[in-house]
Every structure is written in structure tokens, then in C-alpha cells.
Amino acid sequence: MAHPMVVTVICDGNRPDFITDATTPAMAALKRAGTWFANQRGIFPSATRASSASIATGSHPISHGLRGNCMGLPIPGGFEFHDAGKPEFFDTYRRHYGRMLARPALAERVADLQGAVMSANVSPGAAFFHDSYGHAHMYHRELCYGPGRVPTGEKIASPSGGEGDAIMTRRFIEALMEKRPSTATLWLSEPDVSMHAAPLGSDVHLKALAGADRMVADVAEAVDRLRDEGHDVLLMVGSDHGHESVTDAIPVERRLFEAGFKKELDGPEIVVAPQGCAAFIHFGGDAASRRVEAAEWLRQQDWVEDVFMGEDLARLGQIPGDDLIAIDMAKAEGANINRVPGLSAMAVRFDEEVGEIRRHCGMHGGRGRYETNPALFAVGRGFEAGREIFSETSITDIAPTALSHLGLEVSGLDGSALQGRSS
Ligand SMILES: [Zn+2]
Prior knowledge:
Number of domains: 2
CATH class of the largest domain: Alpha Beta
Strand content: 15-25%
Distance between the termini: 35 Å
CATH topology of the largest domain: Alkaline Phosphatase, subunit A
Number of strands: 22
Largest sheet: 8 strands, mixed
Strand order of the largest sheet: 7-6-10-1-11-20-2-21
Mean pLDDT: 97
Number of helices: 14
Shape: globular
Bound molecules: zinc ion
Structural class: alpha/beta
């Protein structure tokens, strides 16, 4: 009996303006065969790990509970820095909060149907927070597991970048054809890896895009075979965030130390958790009383676009806290050396040299026009060919759209299904 299925491909970091007949012929053709979401929006921060949790749960960080790509967790006297991409952070997070994400992932919602497949060539954090309670068949270089997070023993050596993406795509298509899951998600590391490493619009970026395009074509071909066998397959192709080009890198924690807000450069009382073009600044210990003063100082810095505290954060879908300031790094009009529009400063903790290395290369994490505009199109039932939707949609709409296609209840998510959007 053929059942409905949802196949999603995330090309990490892909900007909609780079989906053209010249750069990505397969994606451009698929875009015309389906509905294009021109005003798709990411979350704050527009960073991969929290975005992966948002795509999986259809919810913003305020609802699912993973703040960003990295964060400070409280320790005596202040905070300790943690990278959410590291494999061990998964257990650190569980110990700290006594739970995994606060909202169920799509994989959990389809567990009683034909289950979920996830094949990811991004960081362990981005992969595992997509399925935090372990309901999927997961394929990842760090760990392959089945439902219940039971390791399968399979080892996949897939380096970050196009070569590893090709390995994960082949494994994804095998699992898709063999298991016929209700939902199947392939998360490619490109073009993001190359966009970070080289100027946007460079040959390196365009070559990575062409590679990702061929993998999307291979998945679309597998989807066609499933449709020929009678499955009602919805194909969504998109990304988690876009990119801006780096103007400069600011060592935010060092600057706060130099301005006198910290006693020691790497002391725990103020910890900066950079999110690329944004940052979270945690205030603990005896720095807690200097938070409002620090916010005023930050507002005066030319490398800061915006400062968010308290309820401002909740309005952005972010977890509020009276021990936190979030900053969006300064945006600029104009384009990089390859005439790609969208410029932003980026945040680091201490290093003064990063700006020289990163200038013109891609970055994301903040609230800039391009970094918060990931690509998305949908091909299948409920999505008219050639239609463009200009009203605002969100990466939190992807999970509800999948649920709607599968005939499951769409409730308990921040996003809503995209079927039936008309303008
Ligand atoms: Zn990403």
C-alpha cells in the first residue's frame, strides 16, 4: 500500500538569489515545477544548530529551548562557554536541563506511521538536535542509530564539504528507497562550508553550489521513482539560513574587558557566545549588576546594529533572561568583491586577526536581510507549479507542512502549514 511521504533537502546556507538556471539548473527547474517562497525567514540567531532544532520542531528557540550555536551555561561566579556542535554537548545539555528539546521533533510525530530517516553531513549538534529524543533512523559520521537511539554499528566516513555530502546523499537515497519512511531529511554541508571559506560569488562558492545541485537532482530522481510506485511524495528543498559577506570581525569579549566590564579577559562573569553575525553576552557573578550599563555602552559601538534584552528577546522568538544581552552585528549597504549584496560585521570572543581572514567571505547568525532569508520551494500535492508566494513564511513552517501532507494534526508548533498559502 503506497503511503504519503515527505522528502526534505536542506542545502546549508543556500541563498535564494543563487538558485538560477546558470548556477543550479536542477533546483531552478524544480522551483518552476513547484511553489517558491520568496520571503522565507530564518530564526534568531540565523545559525545552523538552533535552526535545525527549529526546522525539526516547527518552533522558535523560545519554544524548543536550544538558544544558539553556542552558549554559556551557569557555573559558580558566572558562565562557562559551550559549543552546541560538539558531540558531547548533547549530554551536557541533557544534564543541565534534565530533558532534551522542549518540543517534539517531526521524527517523533511520525514514529507511529512509517518513521523518519535523517542523513546529515553537518555538525553532530546540528544532526542530533534535529531528533533530540532519538526516533529517527540517523545517518551521521559521529553515530548511526535506529529508533530508540540504538547504535546500528554502521560507520560512515563523510568529511565536511562536497565529497562527504555525496557520500551522505548516496546513503540517504538507499535508506529512502529501502525504508519508505514518512519523512526523510537530507542535510548537506554545502554550499555553507564553501561560503564560509571563500568570498560569496567566487568560483569556490559556485562549484559547491553546482555539486549540491547535482545531489538535489539525484534525490528528485529517487522521488520520481517513488511517485511512479504510487507514493504521494511532497519534496521540499531549502536551507536553514542565508549568508552576508563579512566586513570585519570584532572580538566582543575582549572589547568588553578593555572597556572595564570584566576584571580578567577570560573570567567567567561575562561570557560571549558568538553566533556569527550576532552574539549572546551572558552576565553572571559580580557582573550581573553591570548588564544595563553594558547594554548602553554596546548601543554606542559602531560595530553593533541592535541590542536586545528581556522581552525584546521573546519577541524575536528567543529565550529571554535577566542575565543576557543579545547583539546583532553592524550591517552595511553594498556588496562584496564579487558584487554579492549584503554586508555584516561578525563577532568572535578574543581574536583580533579574524577580520583579515574572513573579509568578503560568507557568515550568518544575525538579523540581516540576506542571512535571514533561506531558500525554500515545495513540489507536490497542494503546491501549484510556477507559483511564487511573497508573504512571510518561516523555517518553522516546514514541519507543519510535512504533518499536513501526512494527514497528521498540526498543533503544538509555532509555524503553520504552507499548503493553501495564496499570495
Ligand atoms: Zn547552516
